[in-house]
């Protein structure tokens, strides 16, 4: 295995211990150390204490930290300890080129495809399907829930708060536990019970159920309950552990059927791995397979206990390696380094923008142009000039590259809708899944293809929009907008009418074919007929599809839905957004001075238009977004 050009610092920060290691090659860790958090004033002091133990000639340029805390933006505040810090300020203070901070459970999830052969132990039967969804549970101070979804050659980690799903008892003992918990909590989640504090709560509940109540002051701590249960001599502790393992089986089965996790369910955290063979003999697997009509389904899904002590290190190191490869292969992702190199050539005003970005890059991601200009004490046009001096098309393009450079990837997740969801949860999931798909398409936009499509449409004497079935709404929406421009346009969903329509096209005309799969024979025939007439073909379809190969220009939307089993949802929204991109582009090309608003009819020949598109600095009283605001923003 090839060694790195320079060693990398890998850390796993919890509420009690901070673990460190030096990674010399991918997955190869040396100089491991565990420091007590209480012995150090803050995060910087702990890292510096570890770095001071390294040889003087060992220089660390890149570091990655997994931390037991949600990571959103630049500021990190630990929920189970008093440490807090700014990621960018800490990077500068420690002298690292890169400092990546991720949630520890995200790191654990990303380790699963990379665990060594002896890094897991299967409990029960089942066989994992390759390249399938994988579920993850971990009990410790709380209950972590995550998943991995295969995406291309890699994996996407699913952000989840599944530990807070409502607990559902399965027998009399668990009903007794729930009743006891209700005395303290209005809502009882699985995390309330399947955690260190949960073991203590269940111990008191089962003692009360047995007629020998124990108050909180005399309740053994979670590690002591586990020790007593394993060694024997405390019947309540043994029963507590038995109930814990059974409940975990229910939770794992719920996760398996919710995700369709045929790639397996993995158990991590600090509690289960310490139970060793006792967990294997517990009722965990029996409860996992006790799923009524879906018992056969879950019985085929394997369950594993993560035994690799370096699992979190493996995951966070993999995330760091992925980011560094992106930065090396995509110049746009190294935008911070590019800014540093360009500082000597910037104007004094642009330099103030550069200094603001370098000092607070994650803050800039969420700032509108007015706030950036105010913080740098420059005008808004200066901010735009700064972005363009770096080769960016504008502020939105700059932010996209900045986000890529800071995180290594755009956050893309998909959350499964279940029958148990409330209307609020359902709405949030549908909107979240759609937003994630939009971000994915945005990251794949090809400027050259968009420019080419717009050029063809601007020059066209006539445009025909062709699609089939429930995607007809996209074609009719496009027809309406282009007719408003005064461009002759038609929308057809019937195959016979489509062939008749493109059969009268002429050279210079355009056929826009909209297809989720790009494989329908009738639409492929439309493309052929259009080319026979000398017309150009613009395809809004899946990349690498037969239709994409026939088209002159392809606007790729790689989100294919099975319209035979469900109503197209996300793919149709993505196609509508592509139509909007083309609409705005055509509007701007036909009126480069901004005189043509896209929401008003085209003036008749010789008739002057008094309406103008609002500029980026104009506030629209009605709240209608201007063209400059028609972008998506990503952290």
UniProtKB/TrEMBL annotation:
Swiss-Prot/TrEMBL keywords: ATP-binding, Cytoplasm, DNA-binding, Glycolysis, Kinase, Membrane, Multifunctional enzyme, Nucleotide-binding, Transcription, Transcription regulation, Transferase, Transmembrane, Transmembrane helix
Going by the entry's taxonomy, the superkingdom of the source organism is recorded as: Bacteria
Query: What InterPro entries is this protein classified in?
Result: ATPase_NBD, Bacterial_glucokinase, Glucokinase, Homeodomain-like_sf, HTH_RpiR, RpiR-like_SIS, SIS_dom, SIS_dom_sf
Q: Where, by residue number, does the polypeptide cross the bilayer?
A: 255-276, 297-320
State a single Gene Ontology molecular function.
glucokinase activity
Q: Which parts of the sequence are annotated with region: Disordered? A: 615-635
Instruction: Provide the residue positions that the database annotates as binding ATP.
Output: 11-16
Q: Which Pfam families match?
A: Glucokinase, HTH_6, SIS
Q: Which reaction does it catalyse?
A: D-glucose + ATP = D-glucose 6-phosphate + ADP + H(+)
Q: Which PROSITE patterns match?
A: HTH_LACI_1, HTH_RPIR, SIS
In this chain the HTH rpiR-type domain maps to 333-409
Q: In the Enzyme Commission scheme, what number(s) does this protein have?
A: 2.7.1.2
Chief place of localization: cytoplasm
> What is this protein identified as?
Glucokinase
Q: What is the lineage of its organism?
A: Bacteria, Pseudomonadati, Pseudomonadota, Betaproteobacteria, Burkholderiales
**GN (gene name):** glk
